[in-house]
UniProtKB/TrEMBL annotation:
Domain D-isomer specific 2-hydroxyacid dehydrogenase NAD-binding: 110-288
Signal peptide: none
Family membership noted in the UniProt record: Belongs to the D-isomer specific 2-hydroxyacid dehydrogenase family.
Pfam entry (one): 2-Hacid_dh_C
Protein name: D-glycerate dehydrogenase
UniProt keyword list: Oxidoreductase
Organism lineage: Bacteria, Bacillati, Bacillota, Bacilli, Bacillales
Residue ranges constituting the D-isomer specific 2-hydroxyacid dehydrogenase catalytic domain according to the UniProt record: 6-319
Domain of life: Bacteria
Amino acid sequence: MKPKIFITRMMDEQVAAPLREKFDVRMWESETEPVPRTVLLKEAADAEALWTVISDRIDREIIEAGKKLRIIANMAVGFNNIDIEAAKEHDVVVTNTPDVLTETTADLTFALLLSTARQLTVAESELRKGNWKSWSPMQYTGMDAGGATIGIVGMGRIGEAVARRAKGFNMTVLYHNRNRKPDAEAAYGFEYRELDDLLKEADFVVLLTPYTKETAGLIGARELALMKKTAVLINVSRGGIVDEAALYNALKDHTIWAAGLDVFETEPVPLENPLLTLPNVTVLPHIGSASIRTRLAMMKLNAQAMVDVLEGREPENRVE
Ligand code: DGY
């Protein structure tokens, strides 16, 4: 019997088809609807590989249901949706998709920063509603990115790629990270700051840190109060890094100027989320890595990792 791979979303056939030659590939046939928990539990029970996406909660129950499970290939650089401890205990390899999405995610981060700073989505929707009546000196005015100070929280690969883009905008780049980055400091002039100092000095605060026990709720009411009244917060990492209730208050009371969010505590973000009622919030549906080339490259990395593990080789991009 061929080893079984269960794929939790419809993946592109150019990547999935070659797997069918060697493996019994089953796929949840929806690009948009998540696989129901009951189906996932049932499919995991005899699968040797699970190919998952960031919105699948792969907890201990799923991992323990997978009696034959050898690998979980997660289509993301982040893997906070997987119980890594449980995977370790049960000798299940977990892999992710770093590097291939770095530049694409940095592009989106910068696009969101510029869009939020210059209120592009507000201006566009006003035009479409027929509210653009005349050219007006202070209408739809925003904040300048050129020459401003950007503070990057989480200076990993994506953080550095964003920082290099910021240099092209003549920005001063501050960063906060677990470890100092002397090479990047020397090569590009990025400056390290403690978190509180970064929050006080930056015109744009960009969150790119992984979601862990240490970073959950990292930006709350106290941190938001340290930021400038004219500051813009950009989150392209994970929603749980920011206390959304505190962010709502800060934006409503104009303690900070605006926020651009590609991620939310609950995804898809419920339409009742009060943040969606504020004009000074630009929102996106978690599309950091969403270019055609990058999404295909992520799929190829996942597919290769599963082939490697199922054929007894060490995969690239093992996270534990
Ligand atoms: C990641 O790779 O972690 C992204 O957030 C999902 O596209």
